[in-house]
Amino acid sequence: MDIAEAASAQRMRESGRHTMDSMLPPSPKARHEGYAFGILDGLAVRFVQWFGPSGAGEVFRHYAAVCERQTTAARR
């Protein structure tokens, strides 16, 4: 991946994160929780298609570990 591709990928990632932040409140509510799980279902299916079941599992475990570190650090 060259510098232009990396910059484009980063912009897409930030755009996706911003979209989710604007659509989901920080605290879960029944309707938001259902919406979030619908998004997660779609992501999981696509990741399995792209990376296979074990690769998708590895990606989600990695993200779980990263998010755990970030929330732990934020509480300090």
Give a verbal description of the structure:
The protein has helices spanning 3-23, 30-75. With 76 residues, the chain is an all-alpha fold. The chain starts with a helix and ends with a helix.
Helix run count: 2
Order of helices and strands: HH
Rg value: 15 Å
Strand content: under 5%
Poorly predicted runs: none
Number of strands: 0
Terminus-to-terminus distance: 36 Å
Estimate the global geometry from the Cα principal axes. Answer: globular
Question: What proportion of the residues is helical, as a percent range?
Answer: over 70%
Mean of residue pLDDT values: 88
Largest sheet: none
> Which structural class do the helices and strands define?
mainly alpha
Oligomer: single chain
Describe this structure in a few short sentences.
This protein has helices at 3-23, 30-75. With 76 residues, the chain is mostly helical.
Write the layout of secondary structure elements.
Layout: H1 3-23, H2 30-75
Defining key terms:
2 helices; mainly alpha; 76 residues; 88% helix
